[in-house]
Amino acid sequence: MARRKKIYEGKAKTLYEGPEPGTIIQYFKDDATAFNAEKKAVIEGKGVLNNMLSEYFMTGLNTIGVPTHFIKRLNMREQLVRAVEIIPLEVIVRNYAAGTMAKRLGIEEGTQLPRPIVEYCLKDDKLGDPLVTEEHIAAFGWASQQDMDDILSLALRVNDFMAGVMYGVGIKLIDFKIEIGRVYDGDFQRLIVADEISPDSCRLWDIASGRKLDKDVFRRDLGSLTDAYTEVATRLGVMPKGSTPMARPKLIN
Ligand SMILES: Nc1ncnc2c1ncn2[C@@H]1O[C@H](COP(=O)(O)OP(=O)(O)OP(=O)(O)O)[C@@H](O)[C@H]1O
Ligand SMILES: [Mg+2]
């Protein structure tokens, strides 16, 4: 069997060449990293959960007319997506203060913000993905003004969708990060949501208990990450109740 071509090995995913030009296969690994990869672990089942959850969110976004790279899920760990030119920015939308923003501005975690706040970080691991302003983005040509208008509009639409979906299952969307990519359709180019949307890239708090159901469980050693992600998947109906997608196949003698 011909080996498929690996395009990129990231911290959480591996990209392979897709079956047709302009497509990519995203393989979701079990690797978890935090604090710019200073903290690392393998969390069995995380890749399966993120693959299913990202499929769920991206499919929903496509359905309401927010364009994404998602084409179809191929198996438990892989999905077929449109290849894009990634805009080198992490686009963060915050509804409640948390993480670096809470620290930077001295706001208590969990404080509701007056309105959703969109932040941009330069995608550069060596620099620790520094916060940048629209002035930097324009001056250095990372994205055009038209791109920035489109990115803001996509980010806020994703926020409304995600906040609504989460609220429906008793979860508060504190914040999230997305990546945006450029695709070309003939003479036209447009921006679409790429990468992944999963509890790795969102902050999700249970409304009733305040319990964290996202990657902060790993960052702050708050318990089992797979239990937290499974809880999100189960509430959304992505995983049947009581299933353990992360279990390795057992050898039967
Ligand atoms: N549709 C797509 N087409 C091309 N590249 C993509 C697409 N979706 C996501 N990517 C890129 O694929 C990589 C996914 O791997 P992963 O998330 O593990 O990377 P990472 O270790 O977080 O590194 P990075 O700092 O590049 O995001 C990212 O670099 C992301 O920007
Ligand atoms: Mg990534």
UniProtKB/TrEMBL annotation:
Name of the protein in question: Phosphoribosylaminoimidazole-succinocarboxamide synthase
Organism per entry: Roseovarius mucosus
InterPro entries from the UniProt entry: SAICAR_synt/ADE2_N, SAICAR_synt_PurC, SAICAR_synth, SAICAR_synthetase, SAICAR_synthetase_CS
A GO molecular-function annotation: ATP binding
Keywords from the UniProt entry: ATP-binding, Ligase, Nucleotide-binding, Purine biosynthesis
One GO CC term on file: cytosol
Enzyme Commission code: 6.3.2.6
Top class in the EC scheme: ligase
Catalytic activity as recorded in UniProt: 5-amino-1-(5-phospho-D-ribosyl)imidazole-4-carboxylate + L-aspartate + ATP = (2S)-2-[5-amino-1-(5-phospho-beta-D-ribosyl)imidazole-4-carboxamido]succinate + ADP + phosphate + 2 H(+)
UniProt cross-references to SUPFAM superfamilies, sorted A to Z: SAICAR synthase-like
Family classification: Belongs to the SAICAR synthetase family.
GO biological process, any: cobalamin biosynthetic process
Pathway named in the protein's UniProt entry: Purine metabolism; IMP biosynthesis via de novo pathway; 5-amino-1-(5-phospho-D-ribosyl)imidazole-4-carboxamide from 5-amino-1-(5-phospho-D-ribosyl)imidazole-4-carboxylate: step 1/2
Domain SAICAR synthetase/ADE2 N-terminal: 6-235
CDD domains: SAICAR_synt_PurC (cd01415)
